[in-house]
Amino acid sequence: MPDTAAATVRESFKSVKIPSGGLHAAMARRLLTRLRDVMAGSGSAQSRLDKIVTLIAAETGADVCSCYVMRAGEVLELFATRGLNQSAVHKTRLRVGEGLVGDIAAHARPVALANAQSHPNFAYRPETGEDPFQSLMGVPIMRGSRVRGVLVIQHKERRAYAEEEVETLQNIAMVVAELVAAGELASSQEILLSGDPVLLPSRLSGISLNPGLAIGRAVLHRPLPTIRQTVADNPALELQRFLAAIESLHSAINDLLAITANANGESRDIIETYKMFAADRGWLNRIREAIESGLTAEAAVQRVQNETRARMSQLTDAYLRERLLDFEDLTNRLLQHLAGKDTAAESGTLPDDIVLVARSLGPAELLDYDRRRLRALILEEGSPASHVAIIARALDIPVVAQCADLLTLVDPLDPIIVDGDSGQVLVRPGDDAQAAYTQSMALKSERKKLYAGLRDLPAVTADGVAVSLHLNCGMSIDLPYLESTGAKGIGLYRTEIPFMVRSTYPDVAAQVELYKRVLDVAAGRPVNFRTLDIGADKSLPYFAAEPQENPALGWRAIRMGLDRPAMLRQQLRAMLMAAEGRELRVMFPMVSEVAELMSLGHFLDLEIARLHRKGYDVDRAAVKVGVMVEVPSLLWQLPELLARVDFISIGSNDLLQYLFACDRGDARMTGRFDSLSPPMLRVLRDLVRAADKAKIPLSVCGEMAGKPLEAMALLGLGVRNLSMAPSAIGAVKTMLRSLDLAGFSAYLEEAMEGHPHSLRPILNAFARDHGVVL
Ligand code: PEP
Ligand code: MG
Asked: If phi over 0 gives left and psi between -120 and 50 gives alpha, with beta otherwise, what is residue 183?
């Protein structure tokens, strides 16, 4: 089908000539230009605000123009007025929600009333002397998604305000917002503005994806670009810029549609909806009118966004409210097209203590940020087994997910405390909270020191059973943890992570260097190199795979490798070359049948033969082959599988996902099925028994291994080799050193015969009663 949307947009603007909006638009433009001159003029911020209200009253013919500014405690204070008593300035205050002014702020929407005083929400304030003024029109002054104040005009006579007049006042408010949000008014009147720590604190509850405490400043992932100019120098040019941005937005959406052409599912629906919104005439016309009135294209887009947000947030229908987020996203994209660049992760402008705030985030996007500055991650969505959570764990930063309304409550650079232990987030915390958390952080670092002290103590249970603790890693910053934690080796090296952080595919030489470095640092300790596990939510920026309906069940990991042997063989070649005669442990992810393992082994043999031909000295006996057990079909091929491998490692994250048909990345599935449920534990027990019988070493490298309670259960099932994020080693070691394993194993065996949803409560009780430190 030909694309008609962009043509429709062009068509609808064909008739537009500047000045085209007639007398009204011309007047509005003149007023904005004058306002801009006042704003840019000399004098204090207060004196400029005084001039502004005078100018607005004169130009609009109103008897009154007043500006209320938001102060701490959600109080609106009269900051300047033309027409009301001057003595009321800085005295009259209304709470948000109180009176008509408070109502405008509470709902972020305009009010226009011919007879304001008879309105039920009218709050009489005698000191202002507003008795003679019958009609009132007010609009919110907004920056980003937050109301910063209210701009009001009043007339003596009863008059109905035209829609155009409301829009003009909204345009004016966009310009006034610049002054109010600039922070200059703050010094004289101690008002609280953008990023000011004393704006009302908010506490958000979510779920913890990684424990830990952090204090830092908010950085919004893909924030609304900052508007540098609100009043246009050349409206005709602004309109042209807007048209060009709309066109490029449309062609970007069409590109997205082309990519999803074969997908019938949700992703295509979403993009179709996007396309529909992007061609919405009402939306486009409102922006165009705002530009004709003298705003820059960016200011016009955001002005209309404020309005849409206010209107849509009144809706109770959950589906329609969701659409509000689509509009937010679309606005964001349009602003990025206007800016002609991608605004994500511009590191030069970011603070040193980043608390990253996002709706959802891919693992590669998290790695775009400078990890030395990253303190914590907060998500509106997100779930525990998602890969971004795994990366965050590797970075050892607290993560709280599923925080409702996060993006509407947080402004850039807001101070934030993230409590990853309890899943709480404090936005703009008060001094007391800051002090309390600083103290907790000190205690935590004490605990870390304690863990560090355990480094040289053996990982042996209270009754003398030795356990091997290994690391999961994938980034070079992880490697020093081998020394600092005293881990026995790397149980899972996720090779896709170095691939994900690069902008181009690493060739064989680059890969050799990478793997060589890992083996060098490991200095003889075993390293399980897992071959690329891409697909599902782990995509490579330079590898455009077709979107799939069901990516977790689709073309991922070795399934890609077997279909694209060149990629797989290059990786195996690089590993073999990096080993330089040392032991090489290759581990294949997502194996579903023994036949796949045979094909993988065949490719490995081909590479060994190739290197022999080229004169390399590769010792076949030093190459160990392992398989991740994470697809349940393998459970019925265990004897054949175990006869062909040197080791196995249980990927409990995927195993749980496939066992229960439960998407590990779906927030609504969090807690639905538990890894400590009898079916999962029985599967693990059977695996341990089969591996013991075949005398094949078994480890667990899924997230279960790094959580003290889950690790206790694994030990009870007979697992003796655990691989986990470096930050988990201390807590797991503390747990096992306090555990009498024989007693617990017997207890667990019996408990597993029951059929509760989960054994978690009784295992916790066991630990409590038997002094196991969790
Ligand atoms: C797993 O599935 O448990 C695992 C360790 O692999 P990943 O989380 O990388 O899929
Ligand atoms: Mg896996």
From this structure: left
The whole-angstrom separation of Cα 152 and Cα 166 is 10
Centre of ligand 2 from the C-alpha of residue 584, in Å: 21
Tell me: the pLDDT tens digits for 32-58? 889 988 988 888 889 999 999 999 999
Kindly state the tokens that stand for 303.
């002005």
Average pLDDT estimate for 311-325 = 63
| Whether residue 724 has its Cβ less than 6 Å from ligand 1 | no
H runs (alpha helix) in 160-265: 163-181, 184-189, 235-259
Please choose, from the candidates 86, 302, 79, 72, the residue with its C-alpha nearest in 3D space to the C-alpha of residue 197: 72
Choose one of 388, 390, 493, 710 to mutate for the ligand 1 pocket test, by most ligand atoms within 8 angstroms of C-beta. 390
- Encode 647-682 in three state secondary structure: EEEECHHHHHHHHCCCCCCCHHHCCCCCCCCHHHHH
Q: Residue 124 half-sphere exposure, CB side, CA atoms within 13 Å?
A: 7
How many other C-beta atoms lie within 10 A of the C-beta of residue 203? Answer: 13
**In this structure, are residues 490 and 699 in contact, taking their beta carbons and an 8 Å threshold?**
no
CA–CA distance, 228 with 241 (Å, rounded to integer): 15
426 vs 326, 416, 772, CA distance in Å? 26, 6, 32
- Does residue 651 have its Cβ closer than 6 Å to ligand 1? yes
Q: Can you tell me whether residue 494 is helix, strand or coil?
A: strand
The residues, any chain, with a CB within 8 Å of residue 634's CB and separated by 6 or more, are 591, 592, 593, 627, 641
At 361, list the tokens.
């985030």
Cβ 537 under 6 angstroms from ligand 1 = no
Query: Which residues are within 8 A (CB) of 462 and not within 5 positions of it... i.e. 6 or more apart?
Result: 737, 738, 739, 740, 741
Kind and range of the H or E element at 358? Answer: strand 354-358
With both helix axes pointing from N to C terminus, report the angle between 708-716 and 741-751 in degrees, rounded to the nearest 10.
90
**Nearest in space to 88 (alpha carbons), one of 36, 128, 136:** 128
- 571 touches ligand 1 (CB under 6 Å): no
Nearest residue to 29 via CA among 282, 290, 304, 302 = 290
In the structure, ligand 2 is a single-atom ion and the residues with CB under 5 Å from it are: 630, 651, 654
pLDDT for 198 equals 37
Q: How far is the CA of 653 from the centre of ligand 1 (A)?
A: 5
At residue 216's C-alpha, the angle toward residues 474 and 394, to 5°, is 15
Which residue do the tokens 């075993």 mark? 526
Ligand 1 near 384 CB (within 6 A): no
Closest residue by Cα to atom 8, ligand 1, is 653
Q: What is the pLDDT of residues 112-136, one digit of tens each?
A: 999 998 898 898 899 999 999 999 9
Tell me the CA–centroid distance for residue 654 and ligand 2, in Å: 5
pLDDT tens-digit readout, 709-757: 999 999 999 999 999 988 899 999 999 999 999 999 999 999 999 999 9
- Residue 244 and residue 236 in contact, taking contact as beta carbons nearer than 8 Å: no
Helix/strand/coil percent split, the chain, to 5: 50, 15, 35
Adjacent-strand bridge partners of 493: 473, 529
Residue whose CA is closest, atom 6 of ligand 1? 651
Residue 533 CB–ligand 1 contact under 6 Å: yes
Q: Two tokens at 189? A: 């009147």
Indicate which residue of 155, 221, 337, 387 is catalytic: 387
Q: Look up 403 and say whether it is catalytic.
A: no
To test the pocket of ligand 1, the residue of 701, 714, 722 to mutate (highest count of ligand atoms within 8 Å of its CB) is: 701
Our answer on whether the CB atom of 699 is closer than 6 Å to any ligand 1 atom is: no
Q: Whose CA is nearest to atom 1 of ligand 1?
A: 651
3-state secondary structure of 549: coil
Could you check whether the bond before residue 19 is cis, i.e. omega within 30 degrees of 0? yes
Rounded to the nearest 10 degrees, how much is the dihedral formed by the CA atoms of 763, 764, 766, 767? 120
User: Is 250 an annotated catalytic residue?
Assistant: no
Task: Map tokens 């959802």 to a residue.
Answer: 360
